[in-house]
Each structure stands twice: as structure tokens, then as C-alpha cells.
Design a protein that fits this description.
Blueprint: H1 2-6, H2 10-19, H3 27-38, H4 47-56, H5 61-85, H6 87-97, H7 101-114, H8 116-124, H9 129-138, H10 143-168, H11 170-178, H12 180-199
């Protein structure tokens, strides 16, 4: 928490604030909660805390990946209900915050044409998953389909992250913290590439 207070960079503050939970007794519950809210509105991906827990407690990597996936899937269901029943009040402002308006119609086309596979792409890639979960509720697409795709896609992503950290260890953490801004830029580029990749599904 001291690193968060000492940093003047708001991104680093949020990063280290998220990271400090790994050293607490409530690390797994907080990971679950973070995974839940990230699927509907929170900007920091749960991968950050998931990695920190795997660094701090390597033997809990499997448990962390499971709870991260469960939280994310349930959060996706919550996002679906936001789009379904609270679009104008809650859903639309969230989508606007992530500049997701332009992709809404494309999301509809993806669901209509590809269904499961459109959701799966969003679940694995850095594309803002919350845009897809909210859009799926607004367009009233199949909730069971969203749940299945979320389990497969988010599970694959989080188990991959946790497994890699378990294997690669502490040196990855030092690299990320030393080059946080670069990592965020790369993440942004991957997100843009993910959006671009969706066009090839047409």
C-alpha cells in the first residue's frame, strides 16, 4: 500500500492498490469480488491480483484461478442483467465510458451470426468483456450461451495466466512493475488488435 501512496501516477496507484490485497488474509475473496465487478464495470482486470496471489502464494495458483473464473462468470451474468433491465440508467453509461458504442451493432451481428464463438473471443482477448456482457443483455441474447462461453473463455485465460506465473515466477513481477506503463500500452494495443480481429469473423 505504501507504493500506491508514494506514486503520483494514477495508474500505478490503482495497480499497487489492487496488488496489495495479495498479502492479506482476504486475498481470494477480494479476487472473487474484483473478477465479478470487472465483468460489468471495473477497469482493472483481475489478472493483476491473480498474478500477485500466484507470486505471493504459489501453492494457491489453482484455487485462485478457479475463484477468479467463478467470479468473472457470475459478473458476466450480472452484466447481462444490467443490459437487460438497466440499459439506459447503468448499461449505456458504462459502455460509453469504455467507448464501446461503435461496436454495439457489431456485437449484435456477432451474436446473431456466430453466437457462442463471438462471446468466446471476447472472453479470452483483452477486448472489454463488460461491453459484451452488457450488450448481450440489452439485445436479449441467450444467457445460458453466455455462461457456457464465459466458463470456457475466462477459464482458459485465467488458468493460463496462473499457470504461467506458477512456472515463470518472481522475475515476471519485477518486469511488470518496472515497465508498467509499457505493459499497459501493450495491453491497449492487444485490445485494439482484438477489436480488429472481430471484423474477420464477419
Amino acid at each position: 500500500m505504501d507504493l500506491a501512496r508514494s506514486s503520483k501516477n494514477p495508474l500505478r496507484k490503482l495497480y499497487f492498490w489492487t496488488l496489495h490485497w495479495a498479502d492479506t488474509k482476504v486475498a481470494i475473496p477480494v479476487l472473487f469480488f474484483l473478477s465479478f465487478i470487472e465483468s460489468s464495470f471495473f477497469p482493472i482486470p483481475p489478472d493483476v491480483l491473480l498474478m500477485a496471489i500466484c507470486f505471493a502464494k504459489p501453492k494457491k495458483w489453482l484455487q485462485a484461478a478457479v475463484w477468479c473464473t467463478v467470479g468473472s462468470v457470475l459478473g458476466g451474468v450480472f452484466g447481462w442483467y444490467i443490459g437487460w433491465g438497466l440499459w439506459e440508467v447503468v448499461g449505456q453509461p458504462i459502455v460509453a465510458f469504455y467507448h464501446g458504442e461503435a461496436i454495439m451493432e457489431h456485437v449484435k451481428e456477432l451474436y446473431t451470426t456466430y453466437g457462442f464463438w463471438g462471446i468466446l473471443v471476447a472472453a479470452i482477448t483483452p477486448i472489454p468483456y463488460k461491453v459484451f456482457t452488457i450488450a448481450s443483455g440489452m439485445f436479449q441474447f441467450s444467457l445460458p450461451l453466455l455462461i457456457v462461453a464465459s466458463i470456457v473463455g475466462r477459464g482458459f485465460r485465467f488458468f493460463l495466466v496462473a499457470g504461467l506465473i506458477r512456472v515463470l515466477g518472481e522475475k515476471v513481477r519485477k518486469f511488470i512493475e518496472k515497465r508498467l506503463e509499457l505493459c499497459l500500452i501493450v495491453g491497449t494495443i492487444l485490445g485494439i488488435a482484438g477489436f480488429a480481429a472481430l471484423k474477420f469473423l464477419r
